Amino acid sequence: MTRWPGRLILVGAGKMGGAMALGWLEGGLAPSSLTILEPNPSEGIMALADSRGVALNPRKPAPPDVLVLAVKPQSLDGAAPKIAALANRQALILSIVAGKTIANLKARLPEASAVVRAMPNTPAAIGRGVTAAFANPDVTAEQRRWGERLFGVLGAFHWLDDEAAIDAVTAISGSGPAYVFAFTEALAAAAEKLGLPAELAMSLARGTVEGAGELMRRESATSPAILRRNVTSPGGTTAAALAVLQGDGGLDGLIERATAAAHARAAEMAG
Ligand SMILES: NC(=O)c1ccc[n+]([C@@H]2O[C@H](COP(=O)([O-])OP(=O)(O)OC[C@H]3O[C@@H](n4cnc5c(N)ncnc54)[C@H](OP(=O)(O)O)[C@@H]3O)[C@@H](O)[C@H]2O)c1
């Protein structure tokens, strides 16, 4: 099993940073190894610091083995000058800051050398996320293993061979949870059109999406296409709906156009 890094500094302990800190401590990171820099710590983060002895906003933190950047993109201008001295040549920089390229991060942190840029998604907050990351050539084998361990607490993790693929990941899994929520809303609206009361409509739609997702997780050896065929009798009701969903102007083309728009926007915002 990979060792944890000896000294880790988390910059930004909001939704994602806070979830990571909790996951690391629960996964066995020694509290004395962790320092959190966060100007407005939530009650949860303050309690974590108090109860476990995690350093919170020390005046002069020592340079870490790993510096994790989890601030909003718009907060990076303010944060970078304060942490530049911590981002030295020995440190691994792990960034989840959306849209900020490695070149952009290195321009703000001039001493930085090894950088991993990652894109998680919101279910990461409950340990069920999907994260993909790109490591620049300065990242060592041990640092890659640290990355796998630190992001592993968020759920599934994949390495990318090309930094530009982050924009595609953003369009699929980064923004993807919102597509599933939008599908659930549409299913509930359709249920109301078929005459069901609003509360029941939403309950049926949510339960269906949750159950189908869980079934897909448990039956991971079975492809979604087979799972679909397993519940589609020829000439039946599901087949009638799928003929529309998978016909001309159906789901495939719609999802392709939607993700292409997200991809184009991610590329536009990258800097
Ligand atoms: N949430 C997601 O699903 C998701 C998915 C993929 C990527 N990301 C990326 O993850 C990053 C964090 O997102 P989030 O949802 O966790 O945001 P968030 O909840 O707003 O957390 C960011 C935290 O950073 C703090 N902060 C601001 N300036 C700082 C500084 N100078 N030093 C240290 N901390 C500072 C913020 O404090 P204030 O509130 O006082 O500003 C806030 O508590 C973003 O870059 C986002 O693009 C998030």
User: Order of strands across the widest beta sheet?
Assistant: 3-2-1-4-5-6-7-8
Q: What is the strand tally?
A: 8
- Specify Rg, calculated over alpha carbons: 22 Å
The termini sit apart by 36 Å
Number of domains: 2
Low-confidence region ranges: none
Q: What are the secondary-structure elements, in order, as H or E?
A: EHEHEEHEHEEHEHHHHHH
Major sheet attributes: 8 strands, mixed
Shape: elongated
What brief labels describe this structure?
alpha/beta, 11 helices, binds NADP nicotinamide-adenine-dinucleotide phosphate, 271 residues, eight-stranded mixed β-sheet, Rossmann fold, ProC C-terminal domain-like fold, elongated
Account of the protein in words:
Helix 6 packs across helix 11 (251-269). With 271 residues, the protein is α/β, with parallel strands linked by helices. The chain has eleven helices and eight strands. It has helices at residues 15-26, 43-52, 76-83, 102-108, 141-152, 165-174, 176-193, 198-218, 224-230, 237-245, 251-269; strands at 8-11, 34-37, 55-56, 66-69, 92-95, 114-119, 129-135, 155-160. 30% of the residues are buried. The mean pLDDT is 95. It has an eight-stranded mixed beta sheet, sandwiched between helices. The chain folds into two domains: 8-171, 3-Layer(aba) Sandwich (Rossmann fold), CATH 3.40.50.720; 174-269, ProC C-terminal domain-like fold, CATH 1.10.3730.10. The chain starts with 7 loop residues before the first strand and ends with a helix. Bound molecules: NADP nicotinamide-adenine-dinucleotide phosphate. NADP nicotinamide-adenine-dinucleotide phosphate binds at residues 11-17, 37-40, 70-73, 75, 78-79, 82, 96-98, 119-122, 174.
